[in-house]
């Protein structure tokens, strides 16, 4: 019963946040600060409704180098309500083109200056990713999920190389952001609040790297994120 009530309140909150965001977006379309603002409109009230407490270790993002590529693990559609609280200023996201057709949210995503990619067309997707080089060079950071899809497994999936091509082409640092595994631990029928930990790792420089360095760079980032997520889960596990 509590879960049903939460989803009703969440639906109302999402609609209200979308309407407020659309007004702001129409007044200043594609502003690079739109996306972080819209994310907070969704996430702060939604996390409270869902009984989620976000514990963020984000000193790296507080001092984020302009024009960084931020990579994170993607667990579920609830990510917006968690990660949205920590998205830094002048940051946009990369998402699949179909997001643009979701009523209200899709229009807000577009007005936020986020990048929509047609994954069904490899040529167009590659062109869109390379076009983001200019965005990075102008000082706007880009957030992307390199797994390419939602993943609730213990192990991160193989990372797609698009984000890394983008970073190397622009000479932009890569900042891994790790979110503790939460999807299977959400107690929507319980009044107890669940803590989700977010940790930003040290930036990884890409200046001077070439496409030949991509395999090692991709594996370095994946290994660092896997270790961080495993450690957060170990620390969060109840003591026997």
TrEMBL record:
Pathways involved: Phospholipid metabolism; CDP-diacylglycerol biosynthesis; CDP-diacylglycerol from sn-glycerol 3-phosphate: step 2/3; Lipid metabolism
Pfam families per the UniProt record, alphabetical: Acyltransferase (PF01553)
Family affiliation: Belongs to the 1-acyl-sn-glycerol-3-phosphate acyltransferase family.
Organism in which the protein naturally occurs: Pseudomonas farsensis
Record EC number: 2.3.1.51
Protein name: 1-acyl-sn-glycerol-3-phosphate acyltransferase
Limits of the Phospholipid/glycerol acyltransferase domain: 68-182
Entry-linked InterPro entries: AGP_acyltrans, Plipid/glycerol_acylTrfase
Keyword terms of this UniProt record: Acyltransferase, Lipid biosynthesis, Lipid metabolism, Phospholipid biosynthesis, Phospholipid metabolism, Transferase
GO function terms (MF aspect): acyltransferase activity
Domain comment as written in the entry: The HXXXXD motif is essential for acyltransferase activity and may constitute the binding site for the phosphate moiety of the glycerol-3-phosphate.
Swiss-Prot/TrEMBL catalytic activity: a 1-acyl-sn-glycero-3-phosphate + an acyl-CoA = a 1,2-diacyl-sn-glycero-3-phosphate + CoA
SUPFAM superfamilies in UniProt: Glycerol-3-phosphate (1)-acyltransferase
Domain of life: Bacteria
